[in-house]
Amino acid sequence: MKILSLEAANILRLSAAYVTVGDDQPIVTVSGRNGHGKTSLLTSIAMALGGKKLCPPEPLKRGKDRGHVTVDLGSYKITRRFWRGDVAKDYEIHSSLEVTSPDGSTYKSPQALLDKLVSDLTFDPLAFLDLAPAAQREYVRKFVGLDFTTLDQARREAMAQASTAAAVLKMADRDVAGGDRYPGAPSQPVDVAQLVAQMAEAERLQGVADTAQRALDLARQQITHTDHSIAQAEIEIRELQAEILGMTTRRAEAVAEGKGLRDAAAATSAAVPDTVTLRAALVAAGETNAQVSANVRFAAVLESRDEAQAAVDIAKRAIAAIDAQKQTTLEAAAFPVPGLAFSDDGLTFDGLPFEQASYAQQLRVAVAMGLATNPELKVLLIKHGNALDAKSLALLTDLAEQAGAQVWLERVAETPDGVSIFIQDGIAHQAVA
Questions:
Q1: Strand blocks (E) in 325-432
Q2: I want to staple 13 with a disulfide (CB 3.0 to 4.6 A). Which of 40, 95, 134, 221 is the partner?
Q3: pLDDT tens sequence across 381-394
Q4: Could you tell me which of 121, 156, 189 has the C-alpha nearest to residue 377?
């Protein structure tokens, strides 16, 4: 379907317009000076087809209380009317929509019928080129019927798991690199408690031996003192014979006791363990046990690193599987233009980012998208057509002809020469063939 005729009255800047279009006319050029109503004519088509969402708050021409726009598509005739309410009541703008068939019958849900015929790109396909890459990708994704919501969520979760696992792996690698390890250390720690008990017993025996040694030293001192007394007594032997005998007896007893103490001290000393050796063993045990503990910690670090590496590998495999599934789905998708494809954050054309494509290629894609989203109604509206140079305009004409489409193109012009419709002071003048 295409627009066969358009009638508008008192709409925006338009006072009156009635134009007919040939079925074989690919480009309908709407021209005029700025402010004379050419944009209003294209907007009136969008208002008729697109519904209230495309109707401005003040659709009526200033100073007018009633207006309408009628679009004849052949199979359907669409009329949207506007009127201003009673001044004494609301004075608001009201509207109605009527869609009739060629036999004059009307449709009960006219807007629902029209919504099936039009899309956003019907009213400006070049708006597709103004979208951000991610928005272009989303628009095409919806058009080709792909829904990656579940896969994208799974990929985000896998990426988060991979990130967490990679952080753990990085810490584990750092711990492995800086960890202490002693290959020559025993697998079990030394029994320090036993060494401490042996050390305590050795110190106790040393104390006993020291006590015996002090007793022996005291006995030796007593013997020396007694010898000195004997020497003095010999000088006074005559006066102290009785005392010498007693002293001799005490000396003999002291000598006997000293011998016993000496033997006991010698026996005790022989039983004392080597404390130097025990102290060295204690020091060595501490070092050995530290090495054993370090080896245990190092083994735990290695195990943690292996677990982290396994988690990273699992996450990477999950991401690769998701990407492969998405790629398979994308390869099976039917794109409106050959060479168009998805990238991670936008679109590509012939393998390059879409924004790097030539304007001609981008125009081809935009028009193809507009027509593909409206397979039944082959009508596109392009405002601000002066942005198209002669080459782009020729390409647009070729695309419209190839698709059997009708493109309404707004361009600024001072005269009606070479245009389809010329708007002057809100009045539409159709070129005479």
A1: 340-342, 347-349, 352-353, 379-382, 406-412, 421-424, 427-430
A2: 40
A3: 888 788 788 888 88
A4: 121
Same structural domain for residues 191 and 274? yes
β-strands 14-20, 66-72 pairing:
unpaired
380: domain range?
5-118+374-430
Q: Is residue 291 domain-resident?
A: yes
C-alpha distances out from residue 105 to 13, 71, 78, 108, 337, Å? 32, 16, 12, 10, 38
Q: Rounded to an integer, what distance in angstroms lies between the CA atom of residue 396 and that of residue 406?
A: 10
Q: Are 5 and 385 a contacting pair, CB within 8 Å?
A: no
Check: CB of residue 244 under 8 Å from CB of residue 262: no
Q: Please state the rounded mean pLDDT for residues 226-232.
A: 78
pTM score of the predicted model = 0.59
Helix 149-178 / helix 275-332 crossing angle, nearest 10 deg? 160
- pLDDT surpassing 50 at residue 131: yes
Same domain? For 159 and 290 the reply is yes
Position 432 pLDDT exceeds 60:
no
Whole-angstrom distance, CA of residue 74 vs CA of residue 115: 17
Report how far residue 213's alpha carbon sits from residue 221's, in angstroms, rounded to the nearest whole number: 12
Give the HSE-up count for residue 248: Cα atoms under 13 Å, Cβ half-sphere: 9
Distance of CA 344 to the CA centre of its chain: 13
Q: Give bridge partners of residue 429 from the DSSP assignment.
A: 422
- Confidence at residue 291, expressed as pLDDT on a 0 to 100 scale: 85
Residue found by looking up tokens 């199979």 in the block: 75
- Let me know whether 182 and 107 are in one domain: no
Please tell me whether residues 159 and 305 are part of one structural domain.
Answer: yes
What does the pLDDT look like over 348-395, one tens digit per residue?
888 889 888 888 788 888 888 887 777 788 888 888 788 788 888 888
